[in-house]
Amino acid sequence: MKRLALLFVAILFATATFAQSNEPSKLPIDPKTGKITFRKVISNTIGSQDEVFNRIYSGFMNTYYKSPSTILQQNDGRTLKGKHQFQLDNGDAVKSKWPWITYYFTIEVREGRVRYTLTDFMQKTQSNHPCEEWMNKEDPMYQPIWDSYLNQIAAFAEDWGQKFEESLVPEKVFEEEEW
Question: What is the CATH number of the domain that holds 35?
């Protein structure tokens, strides 16, 4: 009887722990497109429109991406559009089995403000699958690992946005004192 009670408590504890750790975070869905879309407008940027754009290109694009010219699809001096990819962790020791996610980003610079958008998250396979499919728990193909994937996408977007915002702050220029 004690073994049965102990087994019941262990199963109950494991189920509760599993449910809490794998619950996906709330992802922003664009009501027009129905796609996962991370968008933010940053106001009160310091400097002219050209200065801010140059700071984004040199301070963010050249440090965050290995080769920004290969991923950029549009660069007109006011708007940067590109396509990139990152890899998710599925817990497997063999990293080559981890899924790759492609996404599109848009950075728009206007006088006094900047807007960035991350969207079109797709799992790279022979035929690309939108990551929004992972949100449907009623799907007969549903797997609990999908919740972890969605959390990783949210963490990636948050990290991307944070590093982008850090690049908007101009570097302090120290003037030498004349003696």
Answer: 3.30.530.80
